[in-house]
Automatic annotation (TrEMBL), chain A:
This is Phosphopantetheine-binding protein. Residues 1-73 form the Carrier domain. Transmembrane segments: none annotated. InterPro entries: ACP-like_sf, PP-bd_ACP. Pfam families: PP-binding (PF00550).
Amino acid sequence: MDAILDILEDLKPGEDYRTRTDLVDARVLDSLTILALVSELEDAFDIIIPAVEIVPANFNTLSGIWDMVSRLRAADL
Amino acid sequence: MESYFSVAMLGVILPLTVLLYQLVPPRVRPYVLLAASCVFYASVSGVLIAFVLLSAVSIWLVGLALSSLDRQQAAARAAAADSDARRAVKRRYRRYRRGAVTVGVAVNIGLLAVLRYLPHFVPAGGVLDISGIGVPMGISFYSLQAVSYVVDVYRGGVQAERNPLRLALFLSFFPQVMEGPISRYGQVGTSLSAGRPITVDGLWSGSVRIMWGLVKKMVVADRVNVLVKTVFSDHAAYDGGVIALAATLYTLQLYCDFSGTMDFAVGAGRIFGVTMPENFRQPFASRTAAEFWQRWHISLGAWFRDYVFYPVSLSAPVKRVTGAARRVLGNRVGPLAASGIALGCVWLGNGIWHGAGSQYLLFGLYYFVLIWLGGFAGLAGDAICGRMGVSRSGAAWRAWQRVRTLAVVVVGELIFRASSAGDALAMLGRLVGGFTFASAVDGTVLGLGMDAADFALVAVAILVLAAVGRARESGVHPLARLCPAPYAGRAAVVMTLFLVAIVFGAYGENYQPVDPMYAQF
């Protein structure tokens, strides 16, 4: 989870990613930031994030992002 | 083309369907909706209903194929010896599944392209001239729904449907087949086939919504029709002031006609227990062009976002471009620059979806440039205001953004309504170079199909629409508030709206009712 936090801090610093639950709904993560985040996550975790995963539920919280990454990693094994 | 707000629909098809739907057992109700949809479709497009059924069969077969491949893949992975073998299975079946979904998309986009666009590009009387077949009603809408179904099954977002008749109903549901909204199977599939009983609540709230749409169509859209047609059909005869007026009234007309039709779709769906997606959300409160498209024809924008923008952005070549742009230009400017590729695809597709005319390509290009460059301008503005310590969150700034966006939208609709890109550019040229209030001062505008009373009524309608929009923006739905528990009160609201449409509606020898404006797309 810390690796994801580092990526988020690098992309858009200054947000409290550990506690926020509205990262997409409050447009902290807009579509362009999400695209950059997807690119970073794919490189960092050696996964492919398909378009179907680009939904608010997967990006509103840090834990939601982590759950998505974990699920895609498990599915790839 | 027949409007949803016709005596045939409001007086015969809808009431008869409601009656029959309620009388039959729940498991038969979806088939009543399908039968009503087929009758309505055939009454407008005749034998062309075969193309809707062909689309339904195609996506049914592709859905079943994808489902079967999923089962085969699961069995093959379970039998695989190690993770390498499982990955190999996954790769193999990914190819098969991509092949299946490609067939589904190609069939439906192919039918759309051939029936809708080919006649524009082949010589009349030639071997490929199929203009005699005609264009099936709503093909641009149901084809996108068909594509969304096969892609959603491919992505795992929805289960493949085993009953082809349910898919036929999904594509042809009569309140939405003519102009949308472009719904997804995951949104409406279950409720369409649930056969829920009609409730008093659903009947009245649906009726109120339909009557609200009727008011917008008859009082506003039909009233401004003659002026809009007169000016756009002979624009060279008018100065920039009249063209600005016609473009503004056309924007209002399109909103009232299209959102009014959506009120019918949502209201009729509500009667049958089906929650249709909303297609408009106070579009004129938008502060940017990008925001406007999140509030106007929402289902089309969402379709392009989910099935074009994200897939293109997340394709391997574009991701490489995005990564390189980020390294060179940084985390904000880099992705924005690279997003131009996907955004270009979206707006090219959006323009072509509306038609083969050059004005639609110009319309797409206009919004592509505005939204893409607007992103850079927004970043630059943030940086400059941040350094200067200027706030851009004040009421005055927000008001300016709304006025600016409204002007941008009116120009866009002028391009959209023009007969060609050349006509649009000529009108824009006169708007800039020949703007004058002379026609308003000398009374010319009162001879274009609207008298002073018409203008006054439209002004009042704008104030009412603005007040309703402002309330809804604040989270209050005035029509819902006007529907207190007593059913007599709700009936009074429906009757009042109906009377408003009858008393203040524009019909008779001085007016020409507008055909359903989005049904041509």
